[in-house]
Design a protein that fits this description.
Blueprint (H helix, E strand, L loop, with lengths): L2 H11 L12 H11 L13 E6 L4 H14 L5 E4 L3 H10 L5 E4 L5 H9 L5 E9 L1 E4 L8 E3 H8 L23 E5 L4 H10 L11 E3 L2 H9 L4 E5 L1 H7 L4 E2 L1 E3 L4 E2 L3 H5 L7 E8 L7 H22 L6 H12 L17 H10 L1
Parallel strand pairs: 1-2, 1-3, 6-11, 7-8, 7-9
Antiparallel strand pairs: 3-13, 4-13, 5-9, 5-10, 11-12
Helix pairs in contact: 1-12, 3-11, 4-5, 11-12, 12-13
């Protein structure tokens, strides 16, 4: 961030609107304001120490790519380490003060907001890309080309456990073959989002499937099993598309494949969703490193998102991210809920209101 943007960020900080961040107390806001005065200095302070990142496997590819660039391109003693424990697992560590940045494939939830507040952890919510949650099968599957939301519910709802076990039980024209399921573990934000989008209730899912917070496990499982069906973020399909087949999803308006264009045009619903990082740079020891990495992340996010298979946000969202980072804008605009059917334009409008 150049000096002009830093001044702009600090100026705009005084005009920031009141948000719905119910997890931030007046006391923490006061402490935050006092420390924000030091933000402009973090650009020139030598960055030292390690930046600890954990959370979503969906966000991992973009964060890992940017961390690698930061570690190699920057003349800095600070190093960034990125791990995976799922969005929910990541927030558990983040709100306990064990990490500096949390990768998230859904907004922070009310219980997590309360946990962060209890532990004095302040967070900046920075949207960084859009994802198309992708339904995949083995390339030898020559019967399924598309699937409806109703059929996904039939497969994944809790009542399906031990009962919907063959392909022809889902659609009569499909063969009488075993249905092997692979999906997100229950500490994954993808699990939260997928269950609400398909079953209609967050965390309502059958449990007799191969579950993992690591999308590589799901990709490898489906790629080796002709009877398998799984779901994960689009970047993992892009990485493994030579050995996987994506199904078009029909929400009642006809089958739509996940692509950058269908996400941008808000056609791939309800399985399109924004991705986030949550940043806490109030650590006294490595504040400069966290701030400088987050600033580097925002600038690299648009091109890196494309390179790993995600959809970049409108340019203005990244400019707003820069301002919010610069003035230490604490909170969330999502009210502690994982909201469905958000579009690129709606995320921009929410950020403008933040």
């Amino acid at each position: 961030m150049n000096a002009r943007l830093v001044k702009l960020a600090l100026a705009l900080g005084t005009l920031a609107l009141t948000t719905n961040c119910t997890a931030t107390t007046n006391s923490s806001q006061t402490q935050s304001s006092q420390k924000v005065a030091q933000v402009s200095n973090t650009q020139t302070i030598p960055a030292t120490g390690n930046v600890r990142i954990d959370g979503s496997s969906t966000v991992y590819p973009i964060t890992q790519a940017i961390a690698k660039a930061f570690n190699t391109e920057r003349d800095s003693k600070a190093k960034v380490a990125v791990n995976i424990s799922g969005t929910t697992g990541g927030f558990e560590k983040f709100c306990a003060g064990q990490t500096d940045i949390s990768n998230a494939s859904r907004p922070i939830l009310k219980a997590e907001m309360e946990n962060c507040s209890k532990n004095g952890v302040r967070y900046m919510e920075l949207p960084i890309a859009f994802d198309a949650l992708t339904i995949v099968v083995h390339p030898q599957n020559d019967w399924a080309k598309d699937i409806t939301i109703a059929e996904l519910k039939k497969i994944w709802e809790p009542a399906a456990q031990g009962k919907i076990t063959r392909w022809n039980q889902v659609r009569a024209s499909w063969p009488d073959r075993p249905l092997k399921l692979y999906g997100a573990g229950n500490k994954s934000g993808t699990f939260d989002y997928f269950t609400e989008a398909t079953v209609g209730q967050v965390r309502a899912s059958r449990s007799d499937y191969t579950a993992s917070e690591d999308d590589e496990v799901i990709a490898n499982g489906v790629s080796k099993d002709p009877d398998a069906l799984g779901y994960f973020g689009y970047a993992y399909y892009e990485e493994h598309k030579g050995k996987l087949k994506a199904l078009a999803v029909d929400n009642g308006k006809g089958p739509v494949l996940p692509t950058r264009e269908t996400v941008e045009q808000a056609k791939y619903q309800p399985l399109s969703r924004p991705l986030f990082i949550y940043v806490n740079y109030w650590n006294a020891e490595n504040r400069a490193a966290i701030y400088q990495f987050a600033d580097f992340y925002i600038r690299k996010a648009p091109t890196t998102a494309i390179s790993v298979g995600y959809v970049p946000l409108p340019e203005e969202v990244y400019r707003i991210d820069t301002v919010h980072l610069g003035n230490g804008k604490v909170g969330t605009v999502f009210g502690g809920e994982a909201q469905l059917n958000l579009t690129l334009g709606e995320v921009l409008r929410k950020q403008k209101q933040f």
